[in-house]
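FORM 7B: Structural annotation worksheet

SECTION A. Query
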Amino acid sequence: MADGREMQNLKSLREGTKSEKTLILLKKTSGAWRGLVDSEKLKHDIYSDRLISRRLQDVNV
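SECTION B. Predicted structure
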């Protein structure tokens, strides 16, 4: 069962504007992935994938 604070948060989510709801949810979830994802490896993989797709486009032209 939810405690008083959780109930208050749920109530404020229902009553708030969309941007207020978004801010509340962002604050609640910020940093939740810390320790689960290696950010440096993620960035490396993203940039590597971008280079590969660009090379394929150049070959197909």
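SECTION C. Observations
The radius of gyration is 20 Å. The longest helix spans residues 39-60.

SECTION D. Sign-off
Analyst initials: ____
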